[in-house]
Amino acid sequence: MASYAQDVKNELARLFVDDKESLRAELLALLTVGAKKIDGRIEFSSTNAAVARKVIILAKKFFPNVKPEVAALRRKKLRKDLSYIVRIFLTDELKNFLAEIDSPDSLKRTRYKVAYLRGAFLAKGTVNRPEGQYFLEISSQNAAMIKFVHNLFEKLEFRAGFYQRKKFFVVWLREADSICDFLGMVGANNAVERFEIARNVKEVRKQVNCIVNLETAALNKAVDAAQRQIADMKILIAKRVPLDERIRETMKMRLENPSCTLAELAEKLFISRDGLKYRLKKIHLLAKKFGKR
User: Which of 74, 132, 273, 291 has its CA 20 to 30 A from that of 265?
Assistant: First the structure.
């Protein structure tokens, strides 16, 4: 079963916006964030076949003379998933394309920034399932590219964090609203719907648990109070303390109904809750007085 992150990538990998320059920005992110330069070639790898396919489609679209090589390797560590390798010869045309990232006019429009972040997420991003803790990350060993990604997040008014984890540099989102906004911005509409449903379910469960905990605490408090009241009454009975009729009536009703709340006991005695509290306080003071004898 595919993870939530893989589902998001599958959705985004099949999204081709009707804007050539945005697609160009997305390819730029895929290759600058997700690829390495090795022996005169640029090498992109992903465990998601749809993402690798998108790299090939976009590369052929913008560089018709380029013929990408594709290989599938099974990883030896972790879950031993297939890793798809896309190798492209580093022509002068491709070098110039990759150098565009350093241009002052690069990604000057908002939709180009969004497209670049979509490509960066496809290349090196992950997002936790919404039923668990909220986090979305984009990581790479290329510090300059991740700092560039972080800068784009800030320009688009996302509160993104940045830190180094061993050899990797990571930009992250931890707030549910930010993650949902990001997924919606880059076009993962199905993922957003699932995210919102899961978040609503979590919120309802949280509220229900809160109510149950409060009710349990109130019940425990009532049980403890009833036990203390019964203990006081047993002292008065054992000491044969003379009591007026109202106190005897209250003691009888409590001993016969040890699990009743104050409100329920007051109703049975046809008195107010404050009146019952007064009687129980009097019983406690008497038990304290005669219990020491």
Answer: 291
